[in-house]
């Protein structure tokens, strides 16, 4: 019996040691990846930032009038690319286009479009977009739940729009622009996911599920097309201060502009990225927590957010 217990405890100790080693390796490699991408590369070390013009003279950004998409459009222009800007509001797009021309001296083309309108949208876009040499596509447009809510409270039109914007737009836009990138043997597709894809998010269940689809699609596409000169990057932001979240900025919640500047810097450096150092720290630490704890915790936090939203809404 003693012999059996000795073996049992030895096995436990070995498994425990291996687990601690695995966690340490994960932490160290994450730490090194973060230091390299967010500190050394911007300083011009380790090869410095990638010249994004190698992918082609034009970039296309969906959801480019606000938040993260606007930030990407301006940063890509600062890095030397002309930009096609897509979202619903012509007025807001014109403002971004003006800023691109006046501040960065690049060309900008605005294409007002509503991605909830179904497949016909992409036929219209085809005519316009195929006239340009678009080497970089940012699939950014996205929609979340109106508030943290139980599934049966989710309006089914909103549910369709969430799927349409977070998944269909990415798939269709990629299908529209990838063939020409493949023909030219160069191109980059940047898919904006969310850290809500890392664990199921109760009360934001559909949103977090659509973002999981973004991750899988993106990673599979990368494996399929990297040998043909196509870079596919998955971007996994934590909270960013935008219209979508309405969270005030702080050290861990950057503005759309600050977040995008940092995230654009990771193109060609990291295949999957949290986009900025504060998010890399928060997400890497959260990743060490067991899934059932995170899911329970998310439920508690989002339940609080739900009550707060409903309380404020009832006062209006
Ligand atoms: N903010 C965060 O904390 C956070 C965290 C993780 C992931 N993300 C992801 O990052 C991406 C951008 O988020 P964000 O916070 O920057 O969002 P946002 O501030 O709400 O901006 C959304 C953009 O999409 C456009 N848009 C909305 N509905 C559209 C439609 N039906 N057709 C065409 N364009 C439409 C909006 O412009 P118009 O109103 O002019 O159409 C706007 O330019 C999303 O995919 C989101 O899931 C955000």
Can you give keywords for this protein?
316 residues; alpha/beta; Rossmann fold; 2 domains; seven-stranded parallel beta sheet; 7 strands; globular; binds NADP nicotinamide-adenine-dinucleotide phosphate
In the CATH scheme, what's the topology name of the largest domain?
Rossmann fold
Number of E-state strands:
7
Radius of gyration: 21 Å
Bound molecules: NADP nicotinamide-adenine-dinucleotide phosphate
Strand content: 5-15%
CA-based shape: globular
| CATH fourth-tier homologous superfamily of the largest domain | NAD(P)-binding Rossmann-like Domain
**What is the correct CATH architecture of the largest domain?**
3-Layer(aba) Sandwich
Q: How many structural units, i.e. domains?
A: 2
- Counted by DSSP, the helix tally is 9
List the helices and strands and how they pair.
Blueprint: H1 2-40, E1 58-62, H2 67-78, E2 82-87, H3 90-104, E3 108-112, H4 120-129, E4 134-139, H5 156-184, E5 187-192, H6 205-225, E6 230-235, H7 256-264, E7 272-273, H8 277-287, H9 291-315
Parallel strand pairs: 1-2, 1-4, 2-3, 4-5, 5-6, 6-7
Helix pairs in contact: 1-8, 2-3, 2-7, 5-6
Transmembrane segments: 7-25, 31-50
GO molecular function, one term: oxidoreductase activity
Organism: Geodia barretti
């Amino acid at each position: 019996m003693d012999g059996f217990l000795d073996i049992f405890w030895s096995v436990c100790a070995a498994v425990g040691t291996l687990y601690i080693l695995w966690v340490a390796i994960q932490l160290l490699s994450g730490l090194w990846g973060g230091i390299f991408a967010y500190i050394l590369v911007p300083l011009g070390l380790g090869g410095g930032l990638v010249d994004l013009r190698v992918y082609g003279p034009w970039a296309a950004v969906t959801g480019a009038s606000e938040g993260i998409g606007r930030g990407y459009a301006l940063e890509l222009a600062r890095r030397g690319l002309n930009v096609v800007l897509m979202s619903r509001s012509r007025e807001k797009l014109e403002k971004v286009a003006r800023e691109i021309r006046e501040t960065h001296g690049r060309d900008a083309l605005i294409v007002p479009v509503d991605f909830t309108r179904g497949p016909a949208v992409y036929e219209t876009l085809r005519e316009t977009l195929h006239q340009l040499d678009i080497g970089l596509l940012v699939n950014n447009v996205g929609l979340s739940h109106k508030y943290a809510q139980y599934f049966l409270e989710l309006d089914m039109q909103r549910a369709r729009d969430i799927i349409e914007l977070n998944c269909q737009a990415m798939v269709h836009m990629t299908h529209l622009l990838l063939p020409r990138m493949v023909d030219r043997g160069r191109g980059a597709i940047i898919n904006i996911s969310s850290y809500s894809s890392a664990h199921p998010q109760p009360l934001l269940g559909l949103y977090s599920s659509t973002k999981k689809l973004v991750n899988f699609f993106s990673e599979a596409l990368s494996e399929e097309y990297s040998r043909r000169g196509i870079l596919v990057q998955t971007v996994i932001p934590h909270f960013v201060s935008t219209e979508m979240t309405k969270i005030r900025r702080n050290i861990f919640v950057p503005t759309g502009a600050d977040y995008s500047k940092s995230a654009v810097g990771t193109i060609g450096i990291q295949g999957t990225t949290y986009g900025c150092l504060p998010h890399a720290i928060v997400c890497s630490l959260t990743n060490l927590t067991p899934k059932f704890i995170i899911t329970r915790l998310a439920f508690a936090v989002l339940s609080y957010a739900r009550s707060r939203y409903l309380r404020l809404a009832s006062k209006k």
